[in-house]
Design brief:
Layout: E1 6-11, E2 14-18, E3 23-25, E4 30-31, E5 35-39, E6 45-52, E7 59-62, E8 65-66, H1 69-86, E9 91-98, H2 108-123, H3 130-140, H4 144-147, E10 152-155, E11 171-173, E12 182-186, H5 197-207, H6 211-231, H7 234-253, H8 264-278, E13 283-286, E14 293-297, H9 302-309, E15 319-321, E16 328-330
Parallel strand pairs: 7-9
Antiparallel strand pairs: 1-6, 1-16, 2-5, 3-4, 5-10, 6-9, 7-8, 10-11, 12-14, 12-15, 13-14
Helix pairs in contact: 1-2, 2-3, 6-7
The structure holds ligand DP6.
Ligand DP6 is lined by residues 16, 19-21, 29, 35, 107, 109, 141-143, 197-198, 201, 288-289.
């Protein structure tokens, strides 16, 4: 970093195989349950943070367009946290280039806040290890803490060790995972989502009579998923991921009023995935806060899976993703 105090970082999205859906603390972003994910090798976000005199105020652009309103407020609140940790007062000018369709349930906030945490910490002169960076990214968006690391990752709701709840909730790589699968991304709709995951999550916790059952199932799924990843058992990993995603959506559908991200096109992709399994291909679906479907499969089967889901997802190219790297500093500034 130059004396000018500028830093750039790159981060990729992650897809949860055991989902995070619900906070026990909205301010600190502490989840009710552990979640497990795979960081992808596609859709990088590049963020440059440049410090500016305090009187200028924070500003941010996304793909060249100035951010205002809630989007800027969230970034500015995160920068305020960095300033508090660093004991500095400068404002920040943030430029982000995002290659994932924003707001379409493909976790753009995960790569976004992971990149902002790494670039922001460096610009403000904070020397943080990966665990501390994951805690920091968590404060921007929960799922962002997992994109700090590459490959398979666990985010602990409460890891047990550490004096405060904040210190006890962080992500770390699952070194024992013995799997190198593909995730085939069928984008059935790249438009903005019907409700932000933040609002929908809170509403689900507050009103869904199934919420308690969801957290119980999720805890069991996290234990089973760890064991399946350790064994390198793709079918078990896929079955757990699919049942977990459907359980999350069922819990949302039971909220009052319901939260429904899944569309007819989503269900058409799910039909295609089921047909693949009938034909002997190991393929399993997961969906986040949007209608798009990610299909877990062996890398060798990815072209066949992509071909099978394409008719149900004609609006955007089907993307084949693999395991990607964690967030890191970069020498190339966001354009
Ligand atoms: C469905 O991390 O976007 O993708 O913490 O409120 O920013 P906030 O929510 P966010 O929620 C992600 C929800 C999910 C599941 C997951 O990634 O675990």
């Amino acid at each position: 970093m130059s004396a000018e105090r500028v830093a750039t970082a790159v981060a990729q999205p992650n897809i949860a195989l055991v989902k995070y859906w619900g906070k026990r603390d909205d301010r600190l972003i502490l989840p009710h349950t552990d979640s497990l994910s795979m960081t992808l090798d596609v859709f990088p976000t590049t963020t440059t943070v440049r410090l500016a005199p305090a009187w200028v105020g924070d500003s941010a652009t996304l793909n060249g367009a100035s951010l205002t309103g809630e989007a800027l407020r969230r970034i500015s609140a995160f920068l305020a946290l960095l300033r508090e940790l660093a004991g500095r007062t400068e404002a920040a000018v943030v430029h982000t280039t995002n290659t994932v369709p924003t707001g379409a349930g493909l976790a753009s906030s995960a790569s976004g806040f992971a990149a902002l945490a790494v670039a922001g910490a460096a610009a403000y002169g904070l020397d943080l290890d990966a665990t501390a960076l994951s805690r920091l990214a968590r404060r921007g968006s929960g799922s962002a803490c997992r994109s700090i690391h590459g490959g398979f990752v666990i985010w602990y709701a409460d890891a047990g060790a550490g004096v405060t709840p904040d210190l006890r909730s962080y992500a770390e790589p699952l070194g024992e995972a013995r799997l190198d699968p593909a995730l085939v991304i069928a984008s059935v709709d790249t438009g903005p989502k019907v409700a932000s995951s933040r609002d929908a999550m809170r509403h689900t916790v507050d009103t869904s009579p199934l919420y308690r059952a969801w957290t119980d199932a999720c805890r069991a799924d996290a234990v089973d998923m760890r064991a399946a990843l350790r064994r390198g058992d793709l079918d078990a990993v896929g079955e757990i991921a699919e049942r977990n995603a459907l359980g999350m959506h069922a819990t949302m559908l039971a909220a009052r009023p319901p939260v429904r991200y899944l569309s007819p096109a989503t269900l058409a992709v799910l039909d295609a995935v089921e047909q693949l399994r009938c034909d002997g291909v190991s393929a399993y679906a997961t969906m986040d806060a949007g209608p798009n479907v990610k299909v877990l499969c062996h890398r060798a089967d990815a072209p066949v899976v992509a071909e099978a889901v394409r008719p149900a997802a004609p609006s955007a190219p089907v993307v084949i993703a693999g395991r990607g790297r964690g967030a890191r500093l970069s020498t190339e500034a966001a354009p």
